[in-house]
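Worked problem 6 (solution included).
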Amino acid sequence: MANGPENPTTGGLHVGAAVPQAIVVSVDAMGGDRGPAAVVAGLGICARRNPGVRFLLHGDQAVLNRLLAKQSDIAGRVSVIHAERIVTMSDKPSQVMRHGDGTSMWSTIDSVKQGQAQAAVSCGNTGALMAVAMVRLRKIAGLNRPAIACLWPSRSPGGFNVMLDVGAGIEADATDLLQFAAMGASYARDGLSLERPRVGLLNVGTEEHKGRAELKLAHDRMATAAEAGGYDFVGFVEGGDIPSGRVDVIVTDGFTGNIALKTGEGTAKLIADFLREAFNAGLLSKFAALLAMNSLKRLQRRIDPRRVNGGVFLGLNGTVVKSHGSADETGVAAAIELAIRLSQSGFVERLAARVASAGRAGQNAEIMGGPALLSKDARGDGKSE
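Solution. The predicted structure is:
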């Protein structure tokens, strides 16, 4: 932890327009790779698009006041809260949990804990942010572990699918996956306005006999819990289904989800680089690029990762949005607007109710299935899945 400072869209999310005056978003200004200038610029974009929202900005007061002075039209809606220290990308989550008080990240989360804001946004260290959020906000009742959900460009009508977990944890047992399904469906319902989301469980194949034991168990329990969870369970899905129109929510463990997410981001960048190289190969190529300019711009808008910047920490007693550390002002604005949309919808309260409902449905599945459906822990053999 270091001392001292250092007309976007949100994809399928419905944000902007009339927002209740009471909404306040807490923003960590010091955590991003691009420094507080990009965060304050992004906050300015978002503030102008959402005139009813107020902001708490955490970090070095002298630096932030200087940056806000350049945006006088929003200064009256932004309160600066001084924090002397910064959580760096190299800080260990365990260290931040014990010694993070006084950092801009801790202060940002604490504002939600104290009821001063409805949501928190940070571009900082993901592991540290999850650790601080867990310590200060705690998990919602009945939840085993939180998850991080992301939006993935897809062929679905809304243009995006939800995938979770993408990095809050590494492993997930059948109960965790069942709860992820409930949380992902709730997120898709509020974030993508899908009345009854289609949920799929990521596996190495769609056949029911494939996959690890906990996946087969989760498959059976999701089928039973779907009605109570308010979603349609489509069964197992494969990696190729992540961007497809077959499913709206993809459920997996954090290890697999994070690898898939980083692979997708790397592939998108590779394709963009290849296109750039191809259209700069010669005079004729440049002329072809000029003719195709409108189509290329539409493609860029559709796959631009800044539009869907912001992974949501699901399962906490408060809304926390993690922006990419390298996000520019457009990406930061998208992450803050996502936090506004979720706050506006009463997302946390609805999510808690869905998790409780899924838990009851999961218990019923165990009772109906008997010992064959129980996890190893529940059968009492002392081994976890």
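Discussion: The CA atoms of residues 198 and 232 lie 5 Å apart.
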